[in-house]
Amino acid sequence: MRVAYGADDANETTRAVQQALADRAVEVVDVTGDQQWPDIGAAVGQAVAGGTADLGVVLCWTGTGTAIAANKVTGVRAALAWDPWIASGARKWNDANVLAMSLKRLAPDVAVEVLAAFLDTPGPDPDEAANIARLGALDD
Ligand SMILES: O=C(CO)[C@H](O)[C@H](O)COP(=O)(O)O
């Protein structure tokens, strides 16, 4: 699996998420550079939509800005999650392909649990196929 990663700041939470990604058998596509949150969200979204990555992970202070930017990219379904149930539900029921988290409000261990729930939940539930198709139609 290839995971695109981007954050607009660095702290214990982003370092824990990066370490958790490094500990997994995933290829990490790190888009983080000297960029602002809209560019980071868009870059992760473009990596996922363009097929450079299978899933994406974005963090900013709130998580909302990078989520909104990623969702501007056609084909991206970015979900802001703050606990594992939200993250796995976003995969199962929304076929979310980008996880957004707040680097200010999630403790490092919680962020790692949310990340694990997102990456380890296969998506989507077949019962949701029609709803996922409805989401796709909104891109048109
Ligand atoms: O949470 C965010 C966006 O939703 C940003 O991380 C926060 O606004 C800080 O950004 P900047 O350093 O550019 O002011």
UniProtKB/TrEMBL annotation:
Organism source for this protein? Asanoa ishikariensis
Q: Which UniProt keywords apply?
A: Isomerase
PANTHER family per the UniProt record, alphabetical: RIBOSE-5-PHOSPHATE ISOMERASE B, SUGAR-PHOSPHATE ISOMERASE, RPIB_LACA_LACB FAMILY
The UniProt similarity line reads:
Belongs to the LacAB/RpiB family.
Cross-referenced InterPro entries, in alphabetical order?
A: RpiB_LacA_LacB, RpiB_LacA_LacB_sf
Q: State one molecular function term (GO).
A: ribose-5-phosphate isomerase activity
Q: Which SUPFAM superfamilies match?
A: Ribose/Galactose isomerase RpiB/AlsB
| GO BP field | D-allose catabolic process; pentose-phosphate shunt, non-oxidative branch
- Per its record, how is this protein called by name? Ribose 5-phosphate isomerase B
User: What Pfam family does this protein match (any one)?
Assistant: LacAB_rpiB
